[in-house]
Amino acid sequence: MRKKKVTYCCLLLWASFFTTVTAQNTNTPMMGWSSWNTFRVHINEKLIQETADAMVTRGLKDAGYKYVNIDDGYFGGRDSNGYLFTNKKKFPNGMKALADYIHSKGLKAGIYSDAGSNTCGSIYDADTLGVGVGLWQHDDIDCKTFFQDWGYDFIKIDWCGGEATGQSEQQRYTDIYKAINRTGRTDVRYNICRWQFPGTWATRLASSWRIHTDINPRFKTIDQIIEKNLYLSPYVSLGHYNDMDMLEVGRGLSEDKEKTHFGIWAIMSSPLMIGCDLRTIPEKTLSIITNQEVIALNQDSLGMQAEVIERGKDYLILSKTIQKREGKLRAVALYNRSNVIKKIRVDFDKLYLSGKVQVRDLWNHQETGTFTEYYETLVPAHGTALIRLEGSKRHDRICYEAEYAFMQEYLPDNKQMAHFAYKAGASGDYIMKRLGNSPSNWAEFRKVYVSKGGEYQLKITYFSGDKRDIQIAVNESEYKQSGLCSGAWDQAAITTVKVKLHKGYNTIRLYNSNGWAPDIDKMEISKSR
Q1: What residues form DSSP beta bridges with 337?
Q2: Dihedral over alpha carbons 501, 503, 507, 508 (to 10 degrees)
Q3: Looking at residue 529, what is its pLDDT?
Q4: pLDDT higher at 463 or 17
Q5: Using CA atoms, how far apart are residues 351 and 328, in angstroms rounded to an integer?
Q6: What angle do CA 239, 240, 245 make, to 5 degrees?
């Protein structure tokens, strides 16, 4: 590791990148607060008003947090015409007045419902007023109430009563999406709370979708959610994000664990919805979640989710490009999963950077220096170092891991369609299995970038114990490789195809409509000589 002093000019340049987030972009992940983690159904008008006040007075609004979400527990029932009404004991002035109060603070108001008839609170918290108040058979009337009459800006829709409708998740959530659109509101954010990645259909409808069961303030659960989201970046696009659930900061975690929790949520572009009591939030927690340099990673205009650059037995290195696609700026998280302090090293060539690389420590708001080849640092137990790199040069990406292909039919519980799976000895430790055997069961590498167009070698590393075919669509051209067999399912082989790539971005699709394709490890591209 080689290091040089950073000049004063570089310091000024870096500082200019981090401006205060005063107005949240509606295409970037949501930032705000939600009532469920701490209060569940035990909410009231005074609590919500005081929380909105705290968002302003504690500096959270100025830091970019805009949404105040009222989760389950506000329902009073339905009147004889089917319209919702509020629990008057808890919300004496009603939900419109409360939304107006939130809006008067320069904030956005969020609301809750269920895709079925009964809410989660009615099932798990014995809230009898949550029975019959879900959206089922009331889509239009409730959406009109929420977004036209009451003026709410966001809705989280649970699935606790969804199974009883007899509809598929896709059909039910699509119907709700259409009902929201019929209100004429085009600015409503829509969260699908299904407790696992719902399917690629959701990425076209929702602002965000939950990928895991409910979070809690145990670090083991936080680590499990991080693991669950590691290979879901292909399904993220600007305005549509994997929701890792509400933040459990301010609820008893150590400072290092809170930094990991918040930092990984930020770099993975999850919505940042605080779940603690903002009226009593600790100052140390407040300083973590208002760190503008970390928030900037979450609110980056590219809307990308960090991917695994390297994973060891007890550490992870995650990274994403920021500000400009194929640019020289990268954000990196060095996450120590172990119980002891650990030195973690990131090699710059794995980030497609070369030459001299400037490194900035985002937690401490300071320049670390200029390095070549690699950077390493000590990371506390369960802690995460967050750094920002600016390289002298960026080279084209060569390797595309199969687990990061967009798999059209991917569902976590459906192992009969294309999915990623652990495989010892594979590049990145994961492969793509069960590709093909259906016209819709394809996988794509999107935005495959080359700085020069022309003829390239496309190398696909695969595993197959019998002869299998694979078809490859590269932009408008088709290629087929037949009878691929590596000799055994635990033995890798490579097939090479000459393809033409456009200068800039290309799309490469792998498929086999009439039979199973081999298991895919990775795809590599290199210029033909």
Answers
A1: none
A2: 30
A3: 78
A4: 463
A5: 10
A6: 120
Instruction: Provide the residue type at 499 as one letter.
Output: V
Residue 402: pLDDT over 70? yes
List every span in the chain annotated with CATH 3.20.20.70.
Answer: 31-210
pLDDT digits (tens, 9 = 90+) for 335-355: 999 999 999 999 999 999 999
Where exactly does CATH 2.60.120.260 map onto the chain?
399-527
Cβ neighbourhood burial of 505 (10 Å; 0-12, 13-18, 19+):
middle
Looking at domain 399-527, its CATH architecture is Sandwich (2.60)
Domain spanning 31-210: CATH 1.10.10.10? no
- The torsion angle over the Cα atoms of residues 283, 285, 291 and 297, rounded to 10 degrees, is -170
Are the CB atoms for 161 and 194 separated by under 8 Å?
no
- Residue 395 makes CB contacts below 8 A (sequence gap 6+) with 352, 353, 354
The pLDDT, as a whole number, for residue 25 is: 60
Spatial separation of the C-alpha atoms in residues 110 and 187, rounded to whole Å = 12
The rounded radius of gyration (Å) of the Cα atoms in the chain is 24
| Domain span(s) for CATH 2.60.40.1180 in the chain | 1-21+222-272+279-395
Cite the active site residues: 158, 214
The token pair that represents 297 in the structure block? 């990673």
Q: Which CATH class is domain 1-21+222-272+279-395?
A: mainly beta
Task: Using a cut of 0.85, tell me whether the model's pTM lies above it.
Answer: yes
Contact 115, 109 (CB under 8 A): no
| Alpha carbon 399 to its chain's center | 22
User: Phi and psi for 369 in degrees, rounded to 5?
Assistant: 140, -170
pLDDT digits (tens, 9 = 90+) for 292-350: 999 999 999 999 999 999 999 999 999 999 999 999 999 999 999 999 999 999 999 99
The CB density around residue 146, as the number of other CB atoms within 10 Å, is: 28
pLDDT at 97 over 80: yes
Residue pLDDT, tens place only, 167-189: 999 999 999 999 999 999 999 99
Six token digits for residue 493: 């082989």
